Amino acid sequence: MTNIQSKLVPVTVPCTQYAHPWTDSCWNSTAGLLLQASQHSLRIYTAVYLLSLITRGRIPTPRDIKRTILGILQSSAFLTTNAFSFIMFTCLLRHVLGTFHFITVSYVPAFLASLCAIFVERPARRILLTLYVANVATETAWSMAASRGIVKSIPHGQAIIFGTSASILLYLYRRGLHHQYQDSLFNIFRFVVGGDEEGRRPTGADESAESPAEALGVEGIEGAVGAEDRVGRRQRRNHYSDISFLVRIYVQLLDKIKSQSKHKSCPHNYSCLYYSVSGGSRLFMVGFGLQVTLKIVLQLKKLLQRKLSLKKVIFNRETLKLGVFLGGFSFLFRSISCSLRHITGFDHPLYAIPAGLAASCAFTKYPDVTVALYVMWKMLQISYNIGVDKGYLPKVPGFQTLLYCASTALLFHVGIFEPLNLRPSYWKFLHGISGGRVAIMDRSAFDVWGLDSSKAVLETLKLTKTQAGKVKFAFS
């Protein structure tokens, strides 16, 4: 690699050679990218908004349909603006400056394009977009540093990031700050660790309200068995007697577990053992069910063609990972929180930190970088808002917008100069939105900066199984 100071030397090359070698007209290239990006954006956001409409679980009203259509058009306009204005600003800067500098090749035009585009999108979606691109940009920046030997991968680094961030958020959750700083992530934590950990006993919860036998309908089963006796159906009587016996055993075992010790400071109703085991088993089944459902949907064609057996889809080690993570996290957090209450004799929100760190060991069974970084950025966002409200941190006007623009610009910059350090899915996104034009752009003139960009593009195309696009539009 050449000396880093060589990047201060400008490269004199026309934009027709680098930015749009398929046409000599800057405006034609911008118009062509606008047409391509608008089609691709409509496909993406139509699927996103329709899926969101379906998952509401109710018949959409005319108002819902209207809002969905307007949302599709507005979000598509946002993404289209980000795409075509990138090439427009690239050419504009080249004409103004006369040469290409290291930051004007892609970073500055991408920053300006993002700045124009983000104001087209709905304000409610801007924070989601910012968190997403900041997530990918963080991973990309780490890959860049690792490729230069500046940093090295840490074993279970994802679990460390996830555990630290989740522990802080759980501490805020236990302090009750989630009511003031409402966020969907707090709802997920409530689902995983339980509403009892908010520190308040749920109203109307009473151990004597309903016995487990009544809840499971044992008396009804026994009554049905007695009725069968009176009718004289001996075979069915024996059948229901067996079921009733098994249910009675289960209920008695459940009652015994529920009646175990529970510290007075514990916010849950039954024993700590039941509280921990029931939460862990429930989350395990949820995670397992989600994975099975997802695999069935993705492999539906092969299942219908009998190229893949349902047994292999369900009974698979990969299918268990999400369930083990969710169930293990819930079980460990609850059991350690209860243990700390037993040891100290009182409850405190700070117990969420050691409990959260220990529970995050379960994340090693489902080490997803995207999830870890998302939780980290959520923690930073919420902590920053709390710091601003309490006067500990200054409020930076437009910080969210600047973060989005800086993160997106970094991704575009790496996509041009170092695509091997870019997440493959994001390269495919850039490839699709540009109709393959991002691969056609001639980077050979910039190889003097020592990043071997033209060679890296060829390797990226091979690794991602993508190819350079063939521009078909007259406005290309």
UniProtKB/TrEMBL annotation:
UniProt keyword annotations, A-Z: Membrane, Transmembrane, Transmembrane helix
Any one GO CC term of the record: endomembrane system
Membrane-traversing stretches: 68-88, 100-120, 127-145, 157-173, 274-298
Compartment(s) of residence: Endomembrane system
Pfam families: TMEM135_C_rich
Topology of the protein relative to the lipid bilayer: Multi-pass membrane protein
InterPro entries attached to this UniProt entry: Tmem135, TMEM135_N
Keyword hit for Transmembrane helix: yes
Ranges where the Transmembrane protein 135 N-terminal domain occurs: 15-145
Cited PANTHER family: TRANSMEMBRANE PROTEIN 135, TRANSMEMBRANE PROTEIN 135-RELATED
Family affiliation: Belongs to the TMEM135 family.
Protein name: Transmembrane protein 135 N-terminal domain-containing protein
Organism field: Hermetia illucens (Black soldier fly)
